[in-house]
Amino acid sequence: DQQVKQNSPSLSVQEGRISILNCDYTNSMFDYFLWYKKYPAEGPTFLISISSIKDKNEDGRFTVFLNKSAKHLSLHIVPSQPGDSAVYFCAATGNQFYFGTGTSLTVIP
Amino acid sequence: GAVVSQHPSRVICKSGTSVKIECRSLDFQATTMFWYRQFPKQSLMLMATSNEGSKATYEQGVEKDKFLINHASLTLSTLTVTSAHPEDSSFYICSAEEGNYGYTFGSGTRLTVV
Q1: In angstroms, rounded to a whole number, what is the distance separating the alpha carbons of residues A101 and B103?
Q2: Residues with Cβ within 8 Å of residue B14, at least 6 apart in sequence
Q3: What was the pLDDT predicted at B1?
Q4: Per the CB < 8 Å rule, is A44 touching B103?
Q5: B100 touches chain A (CB under 8 A)
């Protein structure tokens, strides 16, 4: 059973616009959430995280929002740049680590 | 979709002993698997790339003799933490890339060395 889901396998956005990547989870015991970015032929790299005691965390162009009541996590990228084109994974942790299946973002110049 | 199974999910061992962690691709063949270490509230750290039938490629700073990786078949890679010490306590996570399904992670192994 997939405890962390990314229902959109792909997303295309025009350069300069906002990219919104979504993630849903099922376990209310998760206390920490992370987003990773992965380029082809490379391992994932950490992007941004949020603790369950917060509802927003911002780092430059990247903002993560957490809605605990909806068990929903989103990553906003503003403004989107072509270099942001990659696969984005969300992850949640409690006693174990659970990753989503990834969303492939394409930013069109 | 592709499933990567990691076992055990949790292990507690005594200092000085060795622990083996298995990573299996259940419905696809993985010529390459990756091993990561996750410290609490920190980012995933790539330890090594496991290549079927050949030696693993270790990242800088990762001790090859301490973290032994074996990728003997297209569906199984193992990570052995040798002579474990309390500072080795961490989450260890494997992943594999499969052409049709992309990149899939195992659910991790929480290692506690006492």
Answers
A1: 7
A2: B113, B114
A3: 62
A4: yes
A5: no
Rounded distance between C-alpha atoms, residue A49 and residue B5, angstroms: 25
Lowest mean pLDDT among A101-105, B2-6, B73-77: B2-6
Identify the pLDDT of residue B96.
Answer: 87
β-pairing, A19-25 vs B102-105, is unpaired
> Does residue B36 contact residue B45 with C-beta atoms inside 8 Å?
yes
> A48: part of which helix (H) or strand (E)?
strand A45-51
- What are the tens digits of pLDDT across the range B16-25? 999 999 999 9
Q: Is the pLDDT of residue B101 over 70?
A: no
Is residue B99 less than 8 Å (CB to CB) from chain A?
A: no
Min Cα distance A109 → chain B (Å) is 24
To probe the interface with A, which of B23, B37, B43 has the most A CB atoms within 10 Å?
B43
Rounded distance between C-alpha atoms, residue B51 and residue B31, angstroms: 6
Quick check: B93 and A98 CB within 8 A?
no
For residue B99, what pLDDT band results from cuts at 50, 70 and 90?
Answer: low
**List of residues 6+ apart from B38 with CB closer than 8 A:** A93, A97, B44, B45, B90, B91, B92, B93, B108
